[in-house]
Amino acid sequence: MRAATLLWLLQLGCADLVPRVVIVTTFPPEFARWKRLLPLDEELPFPGGGGSTSLWWNSELHVLGMVTGMTSKNAAMSVTALGHDQRFDLKKAVWLLAGIAGADPEAGTVGGAVWARSLVDGTAVKFLDPREMPPAWPTGWLPQHRAAPYGQPLPSEAERQQMVVSLNPRLVQWAYKLTQSIQLPDSEALQHLREQYHHLPAAQSAPAISLGATLSTDVFWTGSFSASWARNWTTYWAGGRGTEGVPQFAASAMEDFATAQALAALQRLGRSRGPEALLVLRSTSNFVEPPPGRSPEPNMDFFLEVACEAAFLVGEPVVKALVRHLASQPLKWWRRPLTPASSFVPAEK
Ligand SMILES: *[C@@H]1O[C@H](CO)[C@@H](O)[C@H](O)[C@H]1NC(C)=O
């Protein structure tokens, strides 16, 4: 009895599994390659998650993989459930969200991949139907606490922090440098699609890896007006423009901002390093607007497997490099305060 109590006390605060990397995907097709090829072969039940699927574990690499379920609520629910799961100690983990997204043809092409520098929220929005809004407005989507689209004054720093998460620039830059010259698969079908995007050099170039902002909404939107809104909204909140003078908006997704918010809450509880230890990789399965001269359709040309393949090809070397780096960290790290970001950015080769 006493021995059992002692054992219990020893186990308390000393979780079994200490992931080095947590791979976050949002629905099963995104997860399939990680499970089969990394591999993630040990099944761990996870009834509290939003994705209604198990967690999967690789005990050699100490890598955990999850499927959150799509949309911001499932992402937040799953990351939070995992963060409070007593089987894991996640204080050391780096998180990689690797999912598919819609590409802005002004910023990239289908089959490419974006390392997110910032995550912008597009769910906390006021909406007037365009048929009822003032005729001079370009959109019915408004910021909260403003009376017009992109209303003045520009967001305060406090407002910005509610709507934008800037990821750890050193970690993002490291991941980008490690992967930027990876050759991504191309095909005649992709070429045929992108040829239709006249005058948009980014859309017409071969699939490549880039940096940019992702916009998270719970709506599968498509069309030129929405794309224009996404660019403007991203600039309004994330400020300025990208280094090349183009809007920072690169990819349209659902779960990025909510995942970062859930990690920030776990950080406040001392259970994770928060968004500072988060990488978001979005490979692109479709364009967010039709080619010039065509109307949007509910089902745009959609390259699911191409995008899932790209996410794995770009994400896997980053996971392996993080594992190598984190494996060489001191074992009794949990006795120390959470270490600063610089300690988990592997040195440049
Ligand atoms: C985006 O901003 C541009 C430049 O201010 C404007 O012309 C356009 O109408 C805006 N688009 C939307 C949909 O808000």
TrEMBL record:
Can you tell which superkingdom this protein's organism belongs to? Eukaryota
A Pfam family hit: NUP
Q: Which GO terms describe its biological process?
A: nucleoside metabolic process; transmembrane transport
Any GO MF annotation of the entry: catalytic activity
- Annotated Gene Ontology cellular component terms: endoplasmic reticulum
Q: Does the keyword Signal apply?
A: yes
Q: Which InterPro entries match?
A: Nucleoside_phosphorylase_sf (IPR035994), Pur_nuclsid_perm (IPR009486)
Signal sequence annotation = 1-15
- Key words of the record: Signal
This protein is called Purine nucleoside permease
> The organism's lineage?
Eukaryota, Sar, Alveolata, Dinophyceae, Suessiales
